[in-house]
Design goal:
The complex is a heterodimer.
Chain A (H helix, E strand, L loop, with lengths): L11 E5 L4 E4 L4 H7 L2 H12 L13 E4 L14 E6 L6 E6 L3 H7 L4 E5 L6 E6 L2 E6 L8 H14 L9 E4 L2 H4 L7 E3 L2 E3 L4 H7 L2 E7 L9 H17 L1 H10 L4 H8 L20 H8 L16 E4 L2 E4 L3 H7 L8 H14 L3 H16 L15 H9 L3 H6 L3 H8 L7 E2 L2 E2 L9 H9 L30 H17 L13 H5 L4 H9 L4 H9 L14 H9 L5 H21 L11 H4 L14 H12 L9 H6 L6 H4 L10 H11 L4
Parallel strand pairs in A: 1-6, 7-12
Antiparallel strand pairs in A: 1-2, 3-4, 3-6, 4-5, 7-8, 9-12, 10-11, 13-14, 15-16
Helix pairs in contact in A: 2-18, 2-23, 7-8, 7-22, 11-13, 12-14, 13-16, 17-18, 18-21, 18-23, 18-25
Chain B lengths: L1 E6 L1 H6 L3 E4 L4 H12 L3 H5 L2 E4 L2 E3 L10 E5 L6
Parallel strand pairs in B: 1-5
Antiparallel strand pairs in B: 1-2, 3-4, 3-5
Classes of the chains: A alpha+beta, B alpha+beta.
The complex binds iron/sulfur cluster (SF4).
Amino acid sequence: MSTNYGGYMGKVALVDLATGRISEYPWTDEERRLFIGGKTMAAKIISDHLSEIVSPLDPSNLLVVTTGPLTGTGAPSSSRFNISTISPLTGILTSSNCGGNFGYYLKKAGYDALIITGRSETPVWLQIHNDTFRLHPADDMWGMLTGHVQEHLDEKLAEGANGRKVKNGKIVIGPAGENLVRYASVVSNERLAGRGGVGAVMGSKNLKAVTVSGNKMVQAKKPEQMLKLNQKWFKYLHGHPLTGDQMPRLGTAGLVSAMQFNGQLSTKNYKYGQYEDYEKVNGETLAEKYNIVNKGCLTCPIKCARTVEVNGKAVKGPELETLGLLGGGILNNDIELIFKWNFELDELGMDTISAANTLSYAMEANEQGLWDNGLEFGRTETISQLWDDIAHRRGVGNELAEGSRWLSEKYGGKDFAVHAKGMELAAYEPRRAVGLGLGYATSNRGGCHLNGGYMVIMEGLGLAMDAQTPHAKADGTVMFQDLMECISATGQCLFTSYAFFPFFLLKYPQAWYTKAVNKILPMAGPVMRIINKYPEIACIHLPVIFNQSKAMELATGMNMKFGTYIKAGKRGYVLERLINTKLGITAADDKLPKRFTDTPQVEGDDSTKVPLETMKKVYYDARGFDQNGLPKEKILKKLKLDNLAVAKMPVRQPLWEGPAAAEKKEACADGNH
Amino acid sequence: MVTIKIYGTLRLKCGMGQLETYTDSIKDACRLLALATGTPEKEFRRCKFAVNGKRVGLGTKLSDGDELVLLAPSGGG
Ligand code: SF4
């Protein structure tokens, strides 16, 4: 199958590991127009097979690796790829984005996406070169760490090419994926598709790795205009205070100090929002004392990744999340330990956010006498061993491998098990950025700041609208969730969206106009509502600050303006929600732990709680959902989702299995019915 | 004596993270920082400020023993 659109390769591969059968998956231009690529495309594919998926770790689950139409067009920061599946951590749809080079090479092989189904009887790795697909035994690689297996694969590929180094992209899992740790990640180079346990799904299929290479080229529809736009865009990103200064100089780690300043830094399992030793684990310390070189994903002018030394080796440095959660989150002030743990978690193939939060939950459960597990805040000497135990499911590690929701169901402490829909939250404490709290609660994949719309960028990190007011937060959340959905669907990094905020507002926080904007923003809900309800009225490209829609038009040839771009994002977001509602999600699941909704962060100041229920009502209205959180027929029709198979599907039993289900299964296996 | 701490990219640009000095206002502190580092004063004046952990504006007065934090514009992560 081919395509009339530029930017796409026109083919999707379907690999059934049970039979070894490779086929082309039908994907039409109409689907390209409606579902763009990335996580939105993956959601559509999964939605078409949702009724066939038995459980997250069953062979029937799909692992869908997608690229976006901008990947390979030279657009800035556009090499991101996506992995979606039904998550073993949450039991609902998850999408995990990665900056490794797999997506770029998948397109070079001539494919926009790769769908993996079934389970191989024995461990295998898949080699793709252009249209040649080969499954190889991977028994010798089973158990290998992610860095080692990638080196090993390079050697294998070179062996097959008379010793010549083969340029390729890879996705691999580590021991955590093999042992079905619910938050196991997939690794590509040094970058991770970390969230939601995509690595466990890959492990459940006995698939250790995929390599891909090829010699095809991505063709933009209007290459010359695209080139000119890209040149201007790179220049704009270079000149912007966030994408051209803060992110390159400090990386995401640069936010630790700002979050501390705002009371937004998770401390002692989110009990507090400020950590007294933050200076020892912040981005400035990392940059001044440890950063060796900035690194970045392909075609990225921002280069937000750090490089640090661990055991005499230059390795990827930690992101803000890891610094925050493995610093103040567990009361650890040793940044070098965080570097080491970050490296170990990457090598074992585990999400640092979920691992850290599960650990801090366990420490608090121990402190409160709910679970005697020997883990204590501030005690760090056993943690490296603990990561290894989790990845190999040994001892207490076997239980920690299930994540904080599972543990809180077993041992209690649900009020401080910091997750939303089963996914552990990022390092931002939402009581001092209540819009972000709404984002966490409503995010389709569970507790994610980015998928949640990242309102905190207007609540003190960037702009400084009132972080405690619920006003305009619901409409802002909807708008940014939709916007980020489409950015991601096109294959671009979400960090490019920060340049959406005009530079003078960020550079001059004390200027009268910035203060005026901050004052006006809580009143801007009705204006945002118009965009949310009728995105198509914005039938222009936003000049300078938002090049994304123009880039899509030039790359693909689709008629895409700012409004249609937002609408495409909205379609993706509502489709993901629709899938989740068929897996039992309702308004009752859009929640946060009581620590955030019932206990003020500042004693006696009720404004430092998240007024979630108030914001949710407005949010559902702005989304076109009923008050039970279900998409109404009208919004499904408007987004052309009403005729999809998933829209007609009955609601299924939830697919997440807690400790009760596991005990029941064990009892059945023992014959104790 | 007032302790001044600088965070964000400005700290890397001006090459100084902390200064202890005698000053009675944030405006004067910015002037002193410019003198001490050779970085234009406006770079300091455009920061966000906090005194003893509380967000304040540029016009705030300082007292002996205060800790002034300057945070250069930041966001995203
Ligand atoms: S901003 Fe960072 S994460 Fe995004 S593409 Fe660039 S290097 Fe990768």
